[in-house]
Design goal:
This protein is of the alpha/beta class. It contains 20 helices and 16 strands. The strands form four sheets. An eight-stranded mixed beta sheet has the order 8-9-13-12-11-10-14-15. The relative contact order is 0.11. It binds FE2/S2 (inorganic) cluster. FE2/S2 (inorganic) cluster binds next to loops. The site of FE2/S2 (inorganic) cluster has 11 residues, from loops.
């Protein structure tokens, strides 16, 4: 074996390499390894199991399967722990910790001896964090996901996290269901381990990762508890051994054209708006800028084809039965750059040509009969959108796509929580709810709070949607006429900082407009009185690092020192 492979890679610096290797082997032999095992190529496996993370509940079995694949191919698998993030177990929000997970993963990939790496992610922020790490470490890497949970039932209804979580909670807040029923539902929403069973951020990132070429074909949609999930993991282990020899690196796979393919899939699946932020961050690690304007134009060509909640009716286990990414990519073939290399060693076009023939199914529609023919996600401009804000049209109420209303402003998440259900809140169903200081620095962590609840007194009268605007994100499992990622955020003086309750806001999605009907001279007067919120200050630790270096949504909310500047390419 070459001198810089296997256990010889990245030797600890004692000033004597032979001593470093001798000491390393002495310690690792305490685990019972033979010289034969320690002489093999090493495949690292990122272990993101955590007792706090049900989305990763099958990681131990997946690691066993990856190890089996590595050993069948003659290598030595070595799993190593990294941070694990679950959406409901991360204060203040998992996005605040995504960059920390990516740094942890990148440094472990660099520091530990491995000739290739298999990353096991799943829950929303984990796959982006791992791909950001892989892009920066740039050693041969295959991405695995834990796979979606199964759907469950409540009475005669099929249910699954987390679109139904929100729907039932809305019913509970509106008094349409009672406490006993919401408690029963709580026990049924997540019937198995695995990621959310709708087209939320986890499913979106799984699908775009396969389109990007960083996952072996078919891996995005296999449910977490299916035997095929383990067989897929085994084949990733075997393929990682070949990658180690071929030295096929993430920077060769994740090109501007590959990111465009991923964005095509994001649109066709009606994917989460978070997918844009994460793809921007991953691309940024390679010096590639995601061009949001061309993404918006792409939306005019590519309709939503996948009929999954929150925009549609089915669940991820239905998408898998319908052929998963095989069916989606076959349908999207005319739009894709088929020459992009994938982690399998074949181009995307070669992979699509190897797919089995399609069959009759209802989940992935043909191009001539889409679920939604407009652009799934639109980029808004105007004096309230600043450098850009986005809206997921396919999840909107059609009647609200063009709407003018009186602003009702909430200054922070705390202010929202304190006042949204106040019976005296001056609000009507035509109002526009504005939440500010909830962006990357404001909250901090740009939480998924964009799904501002409908005020209880309106919910009780049957109001289910209103125009809502914020500088934060929204869960991919949520729905409604919701403008997100207003950039720059209010906490650094972006346009939302200047809105006052009573102002008129005009949303015109077909014309891509988000405007505040206030004269420039008045906005200037307000700007003079504006002050930086004190929450954006930090004296120590990770929060200090975060506050000093986090970027805005258009740059992926990555840290400025991790993004490769200046950009050397743009997505087509
Ligand atoms: Fe983990 Fe939804 S909470 S994927």
């Amino acid at each position: 074996m070459a001198n810089d492979h296997g256990m010889r890679r990245g030797l600890t610096r004692y000033g004597d390499e032979d001593f470093s290797l001798y000491l390393r082997k002495a310690f690792i032999k305490a685990m019972g390894y033979s010289d034969d095992a320690l002489g093999r190529p090493v495949i690292g496996i990122a272990n993101t199991y955590s007792a706090y993370n049900a989305c990763h509940g099958n990681v131990p079995q997946m690691i066993d399967a990856v190890k089996r694949g590595v050993m069948l191919a003659g290598g030595l698998p070595m799993d190593f722990p990294t941070i694990s993030l679950h959406e409901s177990f991360a204060y203040p929000t998992s996005m605040y910790l995504r960059n920390l997970m990516s740094m942890d993963t990148e440094e472990m990939m660099r520091s530990l001896p491995m000739d290739a790496c298999v990353l096991i992610g799943g829950c929303d922020k984990t796959v982006p964090a791992q791909l950001m790490a892989a892009a920066s470490a740039d050693i041969p890497t295959i991405q695995l996901v834990t796979g979606p949970m199964l759907s469950g039932t409540h009475g005669e209804q099929r249910i699954g996290a987390c679109t139904d979580c929100r729907r039932f909670w809305g019913d509970y807040r509106g008094g349409r269901i009672g406490e006993a029923e919401i408690n029963e539902i709580e026990g049924r929403l997540v019937p198995s381990v695995g990621t959310c069973g709708v087209m939320g951020t986890a499913s979106t990132m799984a699908c775009v990762t396969e389109a990007l070429g960083m996952m072996l074909p078919g891996g995005a949609t296999i449910p977490a508890v299916h035997a095929d999930r383990m067989r897929h993991a085994e084949s990733a282990g075997t393929r990682a051994m070949q990658l180690a020899n071929e030295n096929l690196r993430p920077s060769v796979i994740m090109t501007p054209a590959a990111f465009r393919n991923a964005l095509c899939v994001l649109l066709a699946i009606g994917g989460s708006t978070n997918g844009i932020v994460h793809l921007t961050a991953i691309a940024g690690r390679l010096g590639i800028q995601v061009d949001l304007q061309s993404f918006d134009s792409l939306g005019a060509e590519i309709p939503v084809l996948v009929d999954l909640k929150p925009s549609g009716q089915f669940y991820m286990d239905d998408l898998h039965r319908a052929g998963g990414m095989t069916t989606i990519l076959r349908e999207l073939k005319p739009f894709l750059d088929l020459d992009c290399m994938t982690i399998s060693g074949r181009t995307l076009g070669e992979e699509i040509d190897r797919f089995p023939p399609g069959f009759s199914q209802e989940v992935v529609r043909p191009l001539d009969n889409p679920v939604y023919s407009g652009s799934g996600i639109a980029l808004l401009k105007g004096n309230l959108a600043g450098d850009g804000a986005i809206i997921k049209q396919s999840a909107c109420t059609e009647a609200l796509l063009v709407h003018s209303g009186r602003a009702v402003v909430f200054d922070s998440l705390e202010d929202l929580a304190n006042r949204i259900d106040d019976p005296d809140l001056d609000v009507s169903e035509d109002s526009v709810l504005v939440l500010r200081n909830a962006g990357p620095k404001g909250a901090p962590g740009m939480p998924e709070a964009g799904y501002i609840p409908i005020p209880k007194k309106l919910a009780a009268t049957g109001v289910t949607d209103m125009v809502r605007i914020s500088d934060c994100r929204m869960s991919g499992t949520a729905f409604g006429t919701i403008v997100l990622h207003a950039t720059p955020e209010a906490a650094i003086g972006g346009p939302l900082a200047l809105v006052e309750t009573g102002d008129t806001i005009r949303l015109d999605v077909p014309n891509r407009v988000l405007d505040l009907d206030v004269l420039p001279v008045e906005l200037e007067r307000r700007r003079v009185n504006w002050q930086i919120p004190k929450e954006t200050k930090a004296n120590r630790g990770y929060k200090k690092l975060y506050m000093q270096h986090v970027t805005q949504a258009g740059e992926g909310v990555d840290f400025d020192f991790l993004t490769k500047r200046t950009y050397v390419a743009k997505t087509p």
